[in-house]
Amino acid sequence: MDNNIKITYPSSEKVYMSGKLYPQLRVGMRKVRLTPTVDIVDGKKVVTENAPVYVYDTSGPYSDPEVEIDLRRGLPKLRSPWIAKRKPGDTQMALAKRGVITEEMEYVAIRENMNCAELGIDTHITPEFVRQEVAAGRAVIPANINHPEAEPMVIGTNFLVKINTNIGNSATTSGIEEEVEKAVWSCKWGGDTLMDLSTGDNIHETREWILRNCPVPVGTVPMYQAFEKVDGKAEDLTWEIFRDTLLEQCEQGVDYFTIHCGIRLKNVPLSQGRLTGMVSRGGSIISKWCMVHQQESFLYSHFDDICDICAKYDVAISLGDGLRPGSIHDANDAAQFAELDTMGELVERAWAKNVQAFIEGPGHVPMQKIRANMDRQIEKCHGAPFYTLGPLVTDIAPGYDHITSAIGASMIGWYGTAMLCYVTPKEHLALPEKDDVRTGVVTYKIAAHAADIAKGHPGATIRDNALSKARYEFRWKDQFNLALDPERALEYYKTSNDVEGRYCTMCGPNFCAARISHSLKDCDQ
Amino acid sequence: MDNNIKITYPSSEKVYMSGKLYPQLRVGMRKVRLTPTVDIVDGKKVVTENAPVYVYDTSGPYSDPEVEIDLRRGLPKLRSPWIAKRKPGDTQMALAKRGVITEEMEYVAIRENMNCAELGIDTHITPEFVRQEVAAGRAVIPANINHPEAEPMVIGTNFLVKINTNIGNSATTSGIEEEVEKAVWSCKWGGDTLMDLSTGDNIHETREWILRNCPVPVGTVPMYQAFEKVDGKAEDLTWEIFRDTLLEQCEQGVDYFTIHCGIRLKNVPLSQGRLTGMVSRGGSIISKWCMVHQQESFLYSHFDDICDICAKYDVAISLGDGLRPGSIHDANDAAQFAELDTMGELVERAWAKNVQAFIEGPGHVPMQKIRANMDRQIEKCHGAPFYTLGPLVTDIAPGYDHITSAIGASMIGWYGTAMLCYVTPKEHLALPEKDDVRTGVVTYKIAAHAADIAKGHPGATIRDNALSKARYEFRWKDQFNLALDPERALEYYKTSNDVEGRYCTMCGPNFCAARISHSLKDCDQ
Q: What is the pLDDT of residues A354-393, one digit of tens each?
């Protein structure tokens, strides 16, 4: 393994902003330098500077040339001094409810706003606003006290839409090195959180390597490890085995757990009339347990115990949707909505114990049924953040499901979903490889950003406008450097362009609309 | 050049349906054969057949093993006997208004419905309904009397959403052979119409090869060829040069013309305050002419003459949006909407001369502004079909603009747009190559299909349901064969799967949700 991975972006530098409440905070951002605009006015060259653009940066210390990376040692423990001061039970939510603005809260407020203040752009996102949102359960800052390497980030409908990346091996594929590489790769392209969904060998060790080297919050589905412990026999699972797995992962530093607590014994049969039954791994495992034992799931009956464990470490609970539809045919059915309603009940119990929580959502949903999902989630789950997989708006495009799902993701993000779980081109077909992670992350950055624009997030269009200005002025490199994937844009451009200058091979010199459009100025009466 | 190109699809056969009004009609479809479902019930193997799925087929004679293809000779002239009977002025619209149901109208009615009748699915699409829609201007059947090789298809909000593919060389790239290959390739993946946007050498000859070998309607932007005739000097253009170009292309068989008749002298300056001015090639050329001469454009002042020419050949007019926004910043501005309103005026003048017409739309539009485009188009353009490019919902993803635009395209398709102009991954960067055409077409098939589902088109979900059933039953090959791109799905699957059977490497045998979900049946009480 290359122990000194670095992340670089073209014409960019790593900059830090400090806090006001906590002046020692250093919130990393990426500053993209632009070239000036050059005009010819009355035969004279007029040069106008273009302001740099600040970009939300998930790459952590990997993109800071001052930080020496050593994967064997792990990343610097950014949050350790903040955590050291805290008392047992001091979750972000508990502190927020007591009126305390934590370092994490100011950090995310700065991070969300970028340099809007400098640009004179109004923003509703103050540290106090973050505190209120966390206190009310409308926002989550996943921050296990044992994962001090992670940079704080916030998940909530009144903030930038976030994206999650799934990685992880299965019994038949992929090793630790490859998974760590994918984790860093995800951070490079813009993944906000990372789920390690490993189900194969070395679950613990793989997770350890990822956690110690991951600058973003890490989530897991603890049931996967518990299930390994019982050799894949659902009926042999017990609360004790599950509890011990939770404790092990809390100790390691996992920031949020997907747990399918919303599956009720009475609701499992609702999935039997479906076209595609149950497609959630965690959901199907616990459903099997319920059916074999004809008992309410221990995830449901021990929910308060789960919360007590999570509160101790400030691990957030992501209420998994085990009954999510696996096909557009099954969307918005009784099974799906029964579970959603149960999750609405559970989220209030989590909050009562100061555990941060969010709600997972589908899945496969045709466009005309997406809004109903969001509306029902808001109604039944009391404003808890929604975290959706896609949804995929058609089932007929395996190989392109990053696209079928990005369509639904953009829409549900606009409607209010706080975090989007990415889908790669390999969905339904194989585990994602490194390039699939890149494609999946960039595709979901598009969906999230489109939603931010539609929601009117402060400053959301700064980058679009700077890129479009560069495009119109033939500042090709600026255009690429501002792109979500500068490398791919440049690579495609180079396939047929060897010209530098005021036209390209798409149109040739005569047919360039931008060129002709510029020349209209000279015709003005 | 390979003169005997064939198109094949796995486990598929070419079938034909005949008409009732016109029994000699042979409407081609693709029939996908499926394998049976095999269950074990009480230890016994139970085999249940799965009905084949009929798929809308744009591949024409290329996928019929009975037809011998020879590119030098061109495709069979399907429509010649129908056209032979007609009198001057007998456009589809003129006939529709007179109450005549043409062969083309029955053909498209059958094509839209596939085998819904056999499946007992109600449909509103009868030959008489098609006639009414064409008569009212709400639907267009582009069908130049000199392009008898094209199979009839219909563009209208009450029909399946269609997609258009742009190909064509520029002064600096690509030859005739490559363009013909791209044309056939587009038809293979599902392109409903094809625009030849060549601007380089051999415009006439390239178009001839494409027209004679294209089973779908072909569109052009005649201004490109006119502009070549004046060596790229906009001010030297004249009505006569443009008229002669139209006549030449009508004679050749072009089915629809994009003409930027909606640009008014008074509206050109509205583009000057924009971030990205004018990004339409045709629009910028005619605007330049207007500004230099300080005259109303000859495309506008000679609009009735244009209609007279088009009526003679039954060429449809696609009113081009020269003032479409080239960035989300410029979306829905005064320039764009002024032109849209002018197009609404022109479309009624086209209809008065029995010329079929549709309206082109943007471009770059953030999600929250898409609906206003559709609503205004419906209001101002009297129900004429809308034909949009994307729209792209963010500007920051060059290299991925097939995705940024598919998001907008799906939404506007749902809201009522009749045809979507595809965008490839090379948009803004280079001319598309063959694989970009494939990616662009499949991406837009996704958008169009998602819109069909959302609009409730009869039978739209048949393919989704069959594919999802195959997926849930581990009928991998059926799943791939039903996919929009069977080859890519299989290729991805093969990257890590060498197992045939009831699980795959994504989860391994123990973690397969579908497997566990199936096993729940045995737990039922």
A: 999 999 999 999 999 999 999 999 999 999 999 999 999 9
Which chain B residues have a beta carbon less than 8 Å from that of A511? 170-171, 199, 224, 227, 232, 281
DSSP code of B416? T
Say which of B430, B471, B484 has its CB closest to residue A493: B430
Read off the pLDDT of residues A261-296 as tens digits, 9 standing for 90 and up.
999 999 999 998 999 999 999 999 999 999 999 999
Residue B334's contacts (CB-CB under 8 Å, 6 or more residues apart) are B270
Taking the C-alpha atoms of residue B447 and residue B408, their distance in angstroms, rounded to an integer, is 9
Residue A525's pLDDT is 47
Single-letter amino acid, residue A303: F
Contact A430 B505 (CB under 8 A): yes
Q: Identify whether A391 is preceded by a cis peptide bond (ω within 30 of 0).
A: yes
Number of A/B CB contacts below 8 angstroms equals 404
Select the residue of B281, B456, B467 nearest A513 (Cβ to Cβ).
B281
With b for 16 or more beta-carbon neighbours within 10 A and e for fewer, the B87-96 pattern comes to: eeebbbbbbb
Hey, are the CB atoms on B281 and A327 less than 8 Å from each other?
Answer: no
As a whole number of angstroms, the distance between CA A299 and CA A281 comes to 15
Among all chains, which residue has been given the structure tokens 């057949």? Answer: B49
Q: Does the distance separating the beta carbons of A199 and B508 come in below 8 Å?
A: yes
Distance in Å from the first CA to the final CA of chain B: 66
pTM above 0.95, yes or no: yes
C-alpha count within 13 angstroms, C-beta hemisphere, residue A406: 33
CA dist A353 → A83, A277, A306, B21, B187 (Å): 19, 34, 10, 72, 59
Burial letters A99-137, b for 16+ CB under 10 A, else e = eebbbbbbbbbbbbbbbbeeeeeeeebebebbbbbbbbb
Q: In whole angstroms, give the CA distance from residue B483 to residue A427.
A: 13
Taking CA B235 as the corner, what is the angle to CA B232 and CA B237, rounded to the nearest 5 degrees?
75
Question: How, if at all, do strands A155-156 and A386-389 pair?
Answer: unpaired
Q: To the nearest 10°, report the CA torsion of B123, B129, B131, B137.
A: -100
Backbone angles phi, psi at A44, to 5 degrees: -110, 145
Q: Which residues touch A87 (CB under 8 Å, ≥6 apart)?
A: none
pLDDT of B172 above 70: no
Q: Per residue in A460-479, pLDDT tens?
A: 999 999 999 999 999 999 99
Cis previous bond, A363, omega within 30? yes
CA distance B169 to A134: 56
Spatial contact of B183 and B152, defined as CB atoms under 8 Å apart: no
**Which chain A residue has the Cα nearest residue B235?**
A523
DSSP-derived secondary structure letter, A363: S
Contact between B143 and B80 (Cβ < 8 Å):
no
This complex has an ipTM of: 0.97
Q: Which residues of A26-59 are buried (b: 16+ CB within 10 A; e: fewer)?
A: ebbbbbbebbebeeeeeeeeeeeebebbbbbbbb
Residue given tokens 């039997």 in the structure block: A272
| CB within 8 Å: A516 and B294 | no
| Cα torsion angle, A370, A372, A377, A382, sign | positive
What is the C-alpha separation between A110 and A29, in angstroms, rounded?
Answer: 10
Residue B100 is which amino acid? V
CB-CB: which of B292, B443, B497 is closest to A430?
B497
CA-nearest of A313, A312, A134, A153 to A217 is A153
Backbone region of residue A390 per phi and psi (left: phi > 0; alpha: psi in -120 to 50; beta: other values): left
Amino acid at B143: A
